[in-house]
Amino acid sequence: MHPTIHLSPDTIPVAPTLSMFDPVFVGIDEFGAPVYLDLVYHNLLDAGEPGGGKSVLIQNLVAHAFLCHDFTPVLLDPKWVELGMWMEPADALGGIFVGPDIEGGLRVLRRLQKVMDRRYAWLVAHGRRKFLPTDLIKVIGVFIDELAYYTATTGTPEQQKEFIALVRDLVARGRACAMPVIAATQRPSVDIIPTSLRDLFGYRAAFRCTTPNSSDIILGHGWASAGFNAQTISPTTPGVFYLIAEGGIPHLVKAAYLSDEQIHQLVDYVTWTHRSGQRDSVPLAA
Ligand SMILES: Nc1ncnc2c1ncn2[C@@H]1O[C@H](COP(=O)(O)OP(=O)(O)OP(=O)(O)O)[C@@H](O)[C@H]1O
Ligand SMILES: [Mg+2]
């Protein structure tokens, strides 16, 4: 009898080596220098008018995350077409995808709140204040493409209120316990992003806006009159946005772009490298 190994006969999968603690490449600034985000310890608000490039930016972040060995995905996308592409690998990684279903979204957020409480209990018990890469903990990345759908469009006022409260709690407390939130919205109005919620997002990306006021709602009051106004971004250059990071001044960035084909290739790759129970058993020696 021959011993067996569990490998596909003709190829050997190369496991992803990126970590969620690594800097995430998002594009280039106006001087051509690469721009990276530190996703684990920051939440990102991604806002601006339709067609500005919000989902393209989210795809860059999601693609990085799926190539990491320490990522658990939570994807909410009422339009299906953006994050829905990652549904299969999300399943393979033990994560979840929610479509246009506010009750489903609420269930997931309530569960995340419990996970967050447990993670904090662990940190307290170990005399720690945040997770580090050496903890080998899974980073639960919560990606919401079109926040307004859940907070202002669908469901009852009670459901919407609960959704906002849960997102606020996650945004306020999730950072240190490796549960960052990345949320996009077309309508940067105060009813969707109350100032108190906006200020909890350490990173804010303002894509083209229709008014200086909308731009200020994303970046912070006063930036438009100081010359950082997302209304001035040309509609012919989608993907350009003002990025403000905690404490800094906004700067212009052009997001990297993944084509549908590239995303499908990444989805296939990630699904394949995380597949379980489907590998052929081949004899070690004939
Ligand atoms: N960084 C980029 N580089 C090149 N093209 C881009 C970039 N970002 C966006 N585009 C172009 O703009 C289109 C719209 O982008 P995207 O779907 O991200 O907009 P959005 O802000 O998510 O819009 P909506 O609010 O309707 O969802 C893309 O299909 C693409 O053609
Ligand atoms: Mg979009």
UniProtKB/TrEMBL annotation:
Residues 32-216 form the FtsK domain. Keywords: ATP-binding, Nucleotide-binding. The keyword Nucleotide-binding applies. It holds the Pfam family FtsK_SpoIIIE. Gene3D superfamilies: P-loop containing nucleotide triphosphate hydrolases. SUPFAM superfamilies: P-loop containing nucleoside triphosphate hydrolases. The keyword ATP-binding applies. InterPro entries: FtsK/SpoIIIE/SftA, FtsK_dom, P-loop_NTPase. ATP binds at G48, E49, P50, G51, G52, G53, K54, S55. Signal peptide: none annotated. Coiled coil: none annotated. This is S-DNA-T family DNA segregation ATPase FtsK/SpoIIIE.
